[in-house]
Amino acid sequence: MGFNQDRDFLKQLESSSDRFGEVIQVAKKARSLADEYDNNIFHSEALSFVMTGAMPDNKYRYADEYEATIIKEMFCYIDDIEVKNAVYDSFYLSKSHNNLIYEYNDIADPPRQARVRVLTRMLWHKVYFE
Predict the structure, then answer these.
(1) N or C: which end of the chain has fewer CB within 10 A?
(2) What is the per-residue pLDDT for 1?
(3) How many whole angstroms separate alpha carbon 49 and alpha carbon 26?
(4) How far is CA 3 from CA 7, 29, 97, in A?
(5) Contacts of the segment 107-114: beta carbons below 8 A, 24+ positions apart
(6) Could you tell me the pTM of the whole model?
(7) What's the CA gap between 32 and 95, in Å, rounded?
């Protein structure tokens, strides 16, 4: 949200007889927008979208489908089933903790563990930063 939208909204609130009601309306619109996108956008982002009148990218709406497509695409290139499983487990463990965490399962050799780390990091950045 830009400075001008903030200033315009504050001016509108100053001249309003029901300031609380207007703020509640904006919050309701933001909450319903976040719900519409299955909470794949933060409520703070939804507030910004409501205030600016912009709409979120479709990647937010279809986040689970996008994620599944990326995982499926990456897994086509991994032949080692144990590495695949470790990358899958690492990704979803990281997702639940909102931070990269590596789960090697029963992989003990350092080169394959390094492959799990690299592939998990690639998947994480592909899904969340592109």
Answers:
(1) C
(2) 41
(3) 10
(4) 6, 20, 34
(5) 107/82, 107/83, 112/80, 112/82, 112/83
(6) 0.54
(7) 24
Q: In this structure, what token pair is assigned to residue 3?
A: 């400075």
Question: pLDDT of 26-63, one tens digit each?
Answer: 888 888 877 777 666 777 777 777 777 777 665 555 56
CA 19, CA 27: separation in Å to the nearest integer? 13
What SS3 string covers the chain? CCHHHHHHHHHHHHCCCCHHHHHHHHHHHHHHHHHHCCCCCCHHHHHHHHHHCCCCCHHHHCHHHHHHHHHHHHHCCCCCHHHHHHHHHHHHHHHHHCCCCCCCCCCCCHHHHHHHHHHHHHHHHHHHHC
Q: Is residue 44 within 8 Å of residue 56, measured between CB atoms?
A: no
Question: Residue 18: exposed, middle, or buried by beta-carbon count in 10 A (0-12, 13-18, 19+)?
Answer: exposed
